[in-house]
Amino acid sequence: MPKSLPAIELSGALCCPPVAAGVVSDADALEVALRLKALADPVRIKLLSFVLASGSGGVRNVDLARELHLTDATVSHHLGQLSRAGLLVATRQGASTYYAADRVALGALVRALDPDCC
Amino acid sequence: MPKSLPAIELSGALCCPPVAAGVVSDADALEVALRLKALADPVRIKLLSFVLASGSGGVRNVDLARELHLTDATVSHHLGQLSRAGLLVATRQGASTYYAADRVALGALVRALDPDCC
DNA sequence: CTAGTTCCTCGACATATGTCAAGGGCAGTG
DNA sequence: CACTGCCCTTGACATATGTCGAGGAACTAG
Q1: Residue B115: what are its φ and ψ, rounded to 5°?
Q2: pLDDT band for position B23 (50/70/90)?
Q3: How far is CA B5 from CA A44, A64, B27, B113, in A?
Q4: pLDDT digits (tens, 9 = 90+) for B30-84
Q5: What is d(CA B86, CA B81) in angstroms, rounded to the nearest whole number?
Q6: Burial group, residue A70, by CB count within 10 angstroms (0-12, 13-18, 19+)
Q7: Residues 6+ apart with CB under 8 A from B107
């Protein structure tokens, strides 16, 4: 990955086919890789697990920052990555923004990688 | 990920628990993140798909390099990443090294992320 | 032995990434 | 209005990452 990054919008369904079912196209490989990249960080794994554990109500930036001992700027950065990958959904409520996990998107990504799927 | 990289050996089983089942420990988050990082690259996704598509016999470096239009050095680098993450197993045979996918490891990783698992 | 494969390692380079401090924009409150 | 809390953006920095060319080690073929 020497060159330009994606600038791709990550929203599509992305069902089962990819990696285990025959050779993957460049485009599909990129799609999957981008979503994985969004997840491939210990902080973001913890963030996701916190968000998942907090039900569908959602969690706020500050709370996560306090929990993980990070700056709100840093947490905002990570939440942005996850949101742009479609793994989190942010809903503004007054001054606060609540982040919730998109279980469907996460499930789709997982299934795209599952060697036992399909 | 500002600081030191892992130097962790990635071989353990890593079954279901992690991300969807309550808050994840720092260690677990790191384990999962490292394996995901090994996968979070379009080239490596394509590599894995090629290897998976080639059955258990395994594929050689050169063939993959030709297929992906990359240097053997680059492919070697990527294969190393995947191997160190435990997702590929390399078996030397004379002058050639055959790489095969470890479906169990891949499955374990996938299940660790599956929000519908367990 | 010589020549050709195959693979890996090393060094170098450009680019991407994670983190923070600083600062600004909103929303709610006194 | 002023003040506080929350969130995001920007700029800066160190570090990590992907890619290649060059070269060496180990095996194979002639």
Answers
A1: -70, -15
A2: confident
A3: 16, 23, 13, 22
A4: 999 999 999 999 999 999 999 999 988 899 999 999 999 999 999 999 999 999 9
A5: 9
A6: middle
A7: A114, A115, A116
Name the nucleotide with the smallest C1'–CA separation from A71: C20
Residue type, position B50, single letter: F
How far off is chain B from A95, nearest CA to CA, in Å?
A: 26
Each residue's pLDDT tens digit, A29-70: 999 999 999 999 999 999 999 999 998 889 999 999 999 999
Using an 8 Å CB-CB cutoff, list chain A residues near B29. 42-43, 45-46, 49
CA–CA dist B69, B37 (Å, integer): 22
Burial class (CB within 10 angstroms; exposed 0-12, middle 13-18, buried 19+) of A76: middle
CB contact under 8 A, B107 and A114: yes
What the block records as the tokens of B29 is 């988050």
> How many Å apart are CA A61 and CA A44, to the nearest integer?
13
Q: Tokens in use for B105?
A: 């490891």
